[in-house]
Amino acid sequence: MNALTQFAQSRLAWSILLITALGLEACALFFQYVMLLDPCVMCIYQRVALVGILLAAIIGVIGHSNRFVRFIAVLLWGASASWGLKIAIELVDMQTNPSPFSTCSFLPEFPSWMPLHEWLPSVFMPTGMCSDIPWEMFGVTMGQWMILAFSVYLLALLVFIIPALAKTVSRN
Q1: What residues in the chain have per-residue pLDDT under 50?
Q2: Active site residues per annotation
């Protein structure tokens, strides 16, 4: 357990989280701008959840040796991954069980104090429809892959949370 505690409190652990979230954000932009796939509003919300994980990782990298800072980073990580998983499940449900009564909006509903779609429309403005399935790999849709990704983030959080919040281990 001591080795896991040391890893959870290390800059390397938080850097791995940062690199994976950054990689998924880069993939989203690759799909949008290279493969020309239009993101729907639920895809945009998943991007925001990944930004939350990215911010948690940055906080963790900067304050990895401080228990309170790790606590804040872990909370943001958990909230972002949980929300992202919820959104991904809703998207897959819309795609697999299409209904005229269950549709997504054309514009994201960000708080008025944080209109990301106005500040950075190239990243946060949806242009696609939620019911479309524009891409699959091995018969798995992008939404289903994101369910897997957010589930892995939550599983990693469960493995990580107890040692990450433990008292700082002295390194001899």
Answers
A1: 170-172
A2: 40, 43, 47, 104, 130
